[in-house]
Amino acid sequence: MQAFIFVAAALALASAKTLDIRALEYGFCEGAGEPLTFETFTITPYPVVIATGATINIELIVDLMEVVPEGAKVKLDVVKKGLLDIPLPCIEVDGLHLGSCEYEGQTLLDEGAAFLCPDFFPEGQGCTLPLNPGKYGGAAPPLTIPELPDIIVDLLGSGTYEVRVHAIRPDGSEETCIFEIGRASCRERV
């Protein structure tokens, strides 16, 4: 999930510029349950270069310790931090929803089935909810950054961003919350 969030946040910042990410911090939100552990989370190259046509390699392995039930949802809150924090709305770019969006858990699995299943799932786990405890993840194929509108780049090209991932149970209560804070600067490519 961290890889998904990082990629979504990174895509919201990119185009024909270099995004230099020097600090990346992540963990569980204060008071949140910890139903999984992060065994591996690596991103290369580092610092990350986000520009049209650039590639990013992500490896993520998590050990899920609790069942993710049918009907679970994932809610993202993306905020550009500053004197006045700016929540980023959910926007669609070439069919990809970026920003503060909410997703049905099964829809995420369905849309990622060709990419995720079966290689990123434990043996015997289908690409469907409920997800049973076990190790999930691996090294993803390289991600190539598409071209994004200049207005997104100009608006979001540098700063500190906080992404909170809320895992929501079918009854609407929160299972856990994971945060990621990235500090980035954007400059013209030379």
Give me the secondary-structure topology.
Layout: H1 2-11, E1 17-28, E2 36-44, E3 55-64, E4 73-81, E5 86-87, E6 91-93, E7 96-98, E8 102-104, H2 105-111, H3 113-116, E9 134-139, E10 143-144, H4 150-156, E11 159-168, E12 174-188
Antiparallel strand pairs: 1-12, 2-3, 3-9, 3-10, 4-5, 4-8, 4-11, 6-7, 11-12
Summary, kept brief:
The chain is built from four helices and twelve strands, in the order H-E-E-E-E-E-E-E-E-H-H-E-E-H-E-E. With 190 residues, the chain is mainly beta. The longest helix is centred in the N-terminal third of the chain and has 10 residues.
How would you explain this protein's 3D organization?
- It is a single chain.
- With 190 residues, the chain is mostly beta strands.
- It is 15% helix and 44% strand.
- It is built from four helices and twelve strands; from the N terminus they run H-E-E-E-E-E-E-E-E-H-H-E-E-H-E-E.
- Strands 1, 4, 5, 8, 11 and 12 form a six-stranded antiparallel β-sheet that branches.
- The termini are far apart.
- The N terminus is likely disordered.
Q: Helical percent range?
A: 10-25%
Percent strand equals 35-45%
Query: Helix-strand pattern, N to C?
Result: HEEEEEEEEHHEEHEE
Q: Which whole number gives the mean pLDDT?
A: 80
Counting DSSP H or I runs of 4 or more residues, the number of helices is 4
What would you report as the Rg, rounded to the nearest angstrom? Answer: 16 Å
Question: Class by helix and strand content?
Answer: mainly beta
By DSSP, the count of extended strands is 12
